[in-house]
Amino acid sequence: MKIDIAASASSALSTSPLHAVESAFLTLCADDAPLAFPASFLLTAAPAGRDEVTVTELRKTLLSKSTPMAARDTVWAELVRRSREMAGAWTVVAVAMAMPALKTIAASFARSFDGPVEDLDGEVVTAFLDHLATIDISRPGILPRLRWAAFRAAERTVASEIDFVRHASAFQSEPPRMPFGHEDLVLVRAEREGVLSAADADLIGMTRLEGVGLAEAAEMLGVTPNAVKIRRQRAEARLVAWLQGRPVPSKSALVQSRGRA
Fold it and tell me: Residue limits of the RNA polymerase sigma factor 70 region 4 type domain (predicted)?
């Protein structure tokens, strides 16, 4: 079945690309012959005696905390493959599977965004689709990496808007209207000022703001959960010092400090 996302958007209550994709997905689910997915890709999470599951059932299973990460990655690898090779409906399905996370990202940054929310939603969807076309599906943590690409896009969009408002305010002698203390934007500023590396800002954002567990982050990075924990602790020590106006300890100083502990 071929789905026209643009057409779906025109009939939706909002012109938001996120709502357009969700509308297109619901159309797939409401069809007389709803789109199905091989149950075998769910591994141990597959329903007994079933060869296929509907895409609605698939999303519910992927959202369940009881579904093992191995099953999630197996499903996501196949979804990415189908999106690349078949496009159309399977691209809609891939975005829809991540919809709860994408909506959360967009809503979180909307509080600090002064432009049309549709623009912010569009950046989130575009980043997700761009990463969908290039992501390495042989590595674990496919969805968290896709989600993080969308998160970073929203972060960049809001940061650019804040810069624009800041510069405009300088000419108009008015204070910026946007809140600069938002947790996501603190990470952007810290990265810009060299307090955190991009990788460390990503790690803190993923595990503190996006709900990615240390074990999940470790699988994505190819290291142990303890190594991820130590790396985050060092990055957060630098971030806290910077926020409190104290001298920011160097990475080597933090390593030596841990060695003496």
Answer: 204-239
- In the three-class reduction of DSSP (H, G, I as helix; E, B as strand; rest coil), residue 38 is classed as strand
Is it the case that residue 2 has pLDDT exceeding 70? no
Question: Per-domain residue ranges for the chain?
Answer: 5-122, 181-260
Check if the beta carbon of residue 137 is closer than 8 Å to that of residue 80. Answer: yes
- Residue in the block written with tokens 């240390």: 214
pTM: 0.71
Q: What is the pLDDT of residues 23-66, one digit of tens each?
A: 999 999 986 788 999 999 999 999 999 999 999 999 999 999 89
Please tell me whether residue 52 adopts helix, strand or coil conformation: strand
Please give the distance of CA 69 from its chain centroid, rounded to a whole number. Answer: 16
How many CB atoms are closer than 10 A to CB 236? Answer: 15
Would you say the C-alpha torsion 205, 255, 240, 242 has a positive or negative sign? negative
Tokens standing for residue 145: 């990496």
